Amino acid sequence: MKTLSIVFLAGCVLLAVALMVTRKNDAAALDTAAGTITDFSNRLDTAQTQIVAGERSLLTLSNALTESSVTLSNQLTQTIGQQTEQLATLKQQTATAVAEKAALNADLLDLTNQMTALNGKIAATETSLTQTKSDLAQLGKDYQLLQNRLQRDVAERLVAERKFRSVTQIEAQLQKLNDNPPPVPTTDSIYTGLDVEIRSNGVAHVIAPD
Fold first, then answer.
1. Beta 196-198 vs 204-206: how paired, if at all?
2. CB count in 10 Å sphere of residue 61
3. For residues 151 and 148, what is the distance between their CA atoms, to the nearest angstrom?
4. Helix (H, G, I), strand (E, B) or coil at 139
5. Is residue 119 over pLDDT 80?
6. How many CB atoms lie within 10 A of CB 63?
7. Do 187 and 198 meet the contact criterion of CB atoms below 8 Å apart?
């Protein structure tokens, strides 16, 4: 019985020791878990702080992005308006340029027609000038012939006057006329060989030599 008591006591002691060891281990594990929980809590606080800071940054970024978007939208709207006005102005300028080009082409066509007509007039004038030059040259020749004929007629008239101023010549001519009396002179016979024609009104007209 005494042995059983000793065994029971030893078992109790061992059980107490095991319980103490277990409690000690549990306390250590609890402390470790508490430390871990505290660390996690600190990390969680840090994470929450970072999340709050991130949310603030995100809000700031969102506000900045919204402001930039509004500014960009306004700038884009203004740019589009300016581009639209410039496009309308460019279209108007293009239409004006097209109209001016059409007017210029019409003026150019009219000027071309005028130049063609002017070239025709110049050609006709040159032809007329050539004919006039030819006529002037012919007139010069005719004038020279008439001048030569006049000089010859004047010389012949002077020779005849000089002959009839001589008494001897007059007597010789009278004797010749007495010996060989000429036929009764007529108008045609008087002007024969003189390149002169008598018109119906009695006016003598000199015929130009060939």
1. antiparallel
2. 12
3. 5
4. helix
5. yes
6. 10
7. yes
> CA dihedral defined by 8, 11, 15, 18, rounded to 10 degrees?
170
d(CA 155, CA 161): 10
- Token duo for residue 66: 């919204």
pTM score > 0.70 for this model? no
158 is written with which tokens?
Answer: 């002077």
- How many Cα atoms occupy the beta-carbon half-sphere of 126 within 13 Å? 6
The residues facing 179 across adjacent strands are: none
DSSP string, 52-115: HHHHHHHHHHHHHHHHHHHHHHHHHHHHHHHHHHHHHHHHHHHHHHHHHHHHHHHHHHHHHHHH
> Quick one: pLDDT band at residue 65, thresholds 50, 70, 90?
confident
CB within 8 Å of 149: residues ≥ 6 apart = 195, 209
Residue-wise pLDDT tens digits, 156-201: 777 777 777 777 777 777 788 788 877 776 766 666 666 666 666 6
Question: Which residue, chain included where needed, has tokens 């840090």?
Answer: 46
Vertex 92: Cα angle to 87 and 96 (nearest 5): 145
